Amino acid sequence: MHTSHTVDINNLSVTTPPALQGMKRRTVAVAGLFGIGTLVCFLVDARQAMQAYLVGYMLFIGFTLGCLGWLMLWHLTSGRWGYSMRRIWEAGTRNVIWAAVAFIPI
């Protein structure tokens, strides 16, 4: 038995749901606070702040390149084993550009 589903593309809503709009504002506020805290740390002790930045950067690049590696391995083997994780790996690889930008201070 085959069921056919159709989607009217003209009536799709691509806006953020109201419940997530408040979360987005809070996330930006927290990121701003941490950004200010980072600047204060660089002003107080630049050497220690740079060491902490490097540790954080290595964690960030590890997650990003790890997702890229798993995604490439899945595409290489062409198996069904990676379908459930594919979107997560693809989302993780979207950070490669941000990782390149974050490498500038190093």
Summarize it:
The chain has one domain.
Map the helices and strands:
Elements (H helix, E strand, L loop, with lengths): L17 H27 L1 H32 L8 H8 L2 H7 L4
Describe this structure in words.
With 106 residues, the chain is an all-alpha fold. It has one domain. It is 70% helix and 0% strand. The chain has helices at residues 18-44, 46-77, 86-93, 96-102. α2 packs across α3. The protein is flat.
> Strand-residue fraction?
under 5%
H/E series, N to C?
HHHH
**What count of helical segments does DSSP give?**
4
Rough outline: flat
Quick one: how many beta strands? Answer: 0
Describe this protein with a few key phrases:
106 residues, single chain, flat, 4 helices
